[in-house]
Amino acid sequence: MIIGVDLGGTFMRMGRFDGGIVHDLKVVPASVFNTAGGAELLIEAIGEYCDASERRPEAIGIGVPGTVNLRGEIVRLPNMSFLNGARLASMIEQRCRASCFVENDVTMLLTGDSERMNLKKGVVFGMYIGSGLGGAIFSDGRLLRGRNGLCEPGHITIYGRTEPCACGKTGCAEAIVSGRALEALQAAKHPETHISELFTVMTDEEMDDYTGVLANTLAGVIQLLDPDDIVIGGGVPKMKGFPRADIETRVHGMLLSPIPASTLKIHYSADIEDNASAGSPGVYGAAVFAWRKFGII
Ligand SMILES: [Zn+2]
After folding, report:
1. Which residues make Cβ contacts (< 8 Å) with residue 82, sequence separation at least 6?
2. Fold designation for 121-271
3. Dist. CA 121 → ligand 1 center (Å)
């Protein structure tokens, strides 16, 4: 049995993963950790969940919404700064006496999606558009990591743009196409429309800007990586009217032809028939990540 943990900005979700499916999902509001001693409370919450298991877990996987370096230290976790610099994996290993693997939450999502889509060979690039814009790359099933272990397509700068980004820079792709950027657009220009319907009321100009920046970012990565498969996921692509066809057409037009334009294969997380994650793809992905790592060790 493996325990998967998805540490989100609003909720922490934990689940037991056995026989390929997640069960016993537990949801804890992240606000309970936002106090003095937050790290200890978080570790104890995961520890208690381990203790309540019938069997001790073989491994634990934790996805975090921030940057984890190659040594497994959390470098930047904007919503939970009390964990910055923490070696969360070793702290959990001490408490739970099981191997623990901490990774960026987008890596965990792509792990889970590639497992369910059976994308285990070649280069797979995942781009997840949620409140931010994150990415991950797998090569023959192994996470591709550079000097610092980063993959940050959301912070590719779009020349000439000045929108402030959550990272502190300006003009990042994330500041234009993420869920947070869409919320800002909705509040400023379409306050009468619910955010879930925003794509259905955006003007041609707004839509053109959105699809152009997103396609530009995606096409840049594709030209560099020449991926076998691309996975697009996160909450934004599930929104009504998300312009899939326009984005694909524009990406296609930006790529070298005949290749890689003719070999472009884009998959959507939203199309996966989900009967394994108990409604929490982050928990599922974190568990599969730990399971794969545990199998390799
Ligand atoms: Zn940024």
Report:
1. 33, 34, 38, 39
2. Nucleotidyltransferase; domain 5 (3.30.420)
3. 30
